[in-house]
C-alpha cells in the first residue's frame, strides 16, 4: 500500500466520522415531561418546550440541554436530627419557634436556570428562609401556633414569589405549605400549653359573664320599663284625683259662699262620720234637750227611737229658727 492510498483511507475514515457526528448530533427528541434549551457555541439562544423530534446544527456548533418539567419540593424541617435545613426563628413577641415548611417549585426558564445563577436551588433555599423569618418575625407566637397559619402561608408565598422573580433564576414557586410550627423543647411546650389552657379558661369565663350580663340586662330593662309604666299610670291617676279634689273643693266653696252655716254643719257631720263611723251622733240644744237624732254610723242591730211629740214641736221651732238665721246670714253676705 502506497502512502497516497493510506492518506485516502484516512480521509475517508475522517469523513465517515464527521458524517456520523453530523447525523447523530443534528437532531434530538423532547418528551412531554421535558423541556430543552439550544446552545450555540455555548450561548443559550432558544427554549424548546414542544415535545417531539427537533433539528439543530451539529455538534460542536450547537448542542441542547434537556431539563424536566416536573414540580419539585423543597423542605425545611424543624427536627435538627432529620434535616440540616432547620428553620429556627424568633416571633414578633420574642419567642423561639421551629417550623416545617414545604415549597413546591418548577423550572420555567431553562436558560436562566442553567446560567442565571450558579446554584438556583441554593438561591431558592435562602429566599425561602428569608421570607419565613420575615413573616414569623412580624407575627405573634399565638398566630404562628394556632389560628394564623393560613395567613402566614399566604404572606410567605407572596414574598417568596416576589424575591424569586427579582432574582431571575428561571424558577417559579407553585405553592408554600406550612406543615407544622412547634416550640423548641418539651418544657417550653408544657409551659405554653398551660398558658393556652389558662387563656381558654379566661375566655370561657368572659363569655359566661357576658351571657349573664346580657340576660340580666334585658331583664333589668324590662323591669325598668314596667316601673316607668306604673309610675306614669300613678302620675296620671294622681293628677286626675287632684283635679277631682280641686273640682270638689271649688263646688264646696261655692255652696259655702251661698249657705255658710248649712255648709259648715254639713262639713262637721261628714267629718264626724269619717272619724267616728261606729258612733251614735246626737245634736243637742244649748239647754241640753235633744234637738234632733241623726242616724249617723248607727249599728243595724239597734232600733232607731222615735222622737216624742215635744221633740217634734221643738224640732219644728228649731228648723224655723235655722231658716231665719240662714236668711239673715244671706242678707249680711250680700
TrEMBL record:
Its main location: membrane. One of its GO terms (cellular component) is membrane. CDD domains: SPFH_HflK. HflC and HflK may interact to form a multimeric complex. Keywords: Membrane, Transmembrane, Transmembrane helix. HflC and HflK could encode or regulate a protease. InterPro entries: Band_7, Band_7/SPFH_dom_sf, HflK. The keyword Membrane applies. This is Protein HflK. Residues 294-334 are annotated as: Disordered. The chain crosses the membrane at residues 7-28. It is found in: Membrane. Residues 25-196 form the Band domain. Residues 298-308 have a biased composition (Polar residues). Belongs to the band 7/mec-2 family. HflK subfamily. Residues 309-334 have a biased composition (Basic and acidic residues). SMART domains: PHB. Signal peptide: none annotated. SUPFAM superfamilies: Band 7/SPFH domain (SSF117892).
Amino acid at each position: 500500500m502506497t502512502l497516497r492510498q493510506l492518506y485516502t483511507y484516512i480521509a475517508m475514515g475522517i469523513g465517515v466520522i464527521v458524517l456520523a457526528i453530523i447525523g447523530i448530533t443534528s437532531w434530538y427528541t423532547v418528551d412531554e415531561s421535558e423541556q430543552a434549551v439550544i446552545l450555540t457555541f455555548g450561548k443559550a439562544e432558544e427554549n424548546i418546550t414542544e415535545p417531539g423530534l427537533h433539528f439543530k446544527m451539529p455538534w460542536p456548533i450547537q448542542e441542547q440541554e434537556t431539563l424536566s418539567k416536573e414540580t419539585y419540593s423543597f423542605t425545611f424541617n424543624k427536627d435538627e436530627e432529620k434535616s440540616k435545613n432547620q428553620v429556627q426563628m424568633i416571633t414578633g413577641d420574642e419567642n423561639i419557634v421551629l417550623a416545617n415548611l414545604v415549597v413546591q417549585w418548577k423550572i420555567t426558564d431553562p436558560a436562566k436556570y442553567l446560567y442565571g445563577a450558579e446554584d438556583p436551588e441554593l438561591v431558592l433555599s435562602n429566599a425561602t428562609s428569608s421570607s419565613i423569618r420575615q413573616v414569623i418575625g412580624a407575627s405573634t407566637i399565638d398566630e404562628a401556633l394556632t389560628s394564623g397559619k393560613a395567613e402566614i402561608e399566604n404572606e410567605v408565598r407572596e414574598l417568596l414569589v416576589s424575591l424569586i422573580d427579582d432574582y431571575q433564576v428561571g424558577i417559579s414557586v407553585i405553592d408554600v405549605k406550612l406543615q407544622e410550627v412547634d416550640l423548641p423543647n418539651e418544657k417550653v411546650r408544657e409551659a405554653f400549653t398551660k398558658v393556652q389552657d389558662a387563656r381558654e379558661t379566661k375566655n370561657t369565663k368572659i363569655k359566661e359573664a357576658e351571657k349573664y350580663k346580657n340576660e340580666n340586662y334585658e331583664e333589668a330593662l324590662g323591669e325598668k320599663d314596667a316601673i316607668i309604666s306604673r309610675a306614669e299610670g300613678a302620675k296620671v291617676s294622681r293628677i286626675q284625683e287632684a283635679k277631682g279634689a280641686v273640682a270638689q273643693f271649688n263646688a264646696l266653696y261655692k255652696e259655702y259662699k251661698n249657705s255658710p252655716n248649712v255648709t259648715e254643719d254639713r262639713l262637721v257631720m261628714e267629718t264626724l262620720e269619717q272619724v267616728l263611723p261606729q258612733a251614735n251622733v246626737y245634736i243637742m240644744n244649748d239647754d241640753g234637750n235633744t234637738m234632733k237624732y241623726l242616724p249617723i254610723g248607727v249599728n243595724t242591730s239597734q232600733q232607731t227611737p222615735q222622737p216624742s211629740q215635744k221633740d217634734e214641736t221643738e224640732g219644728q221651732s228649731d228648723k224655723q229658727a235655722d231658716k231665719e238665721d240662714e236668711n239673715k246670714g244671706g242678707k249680711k253676705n250680700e
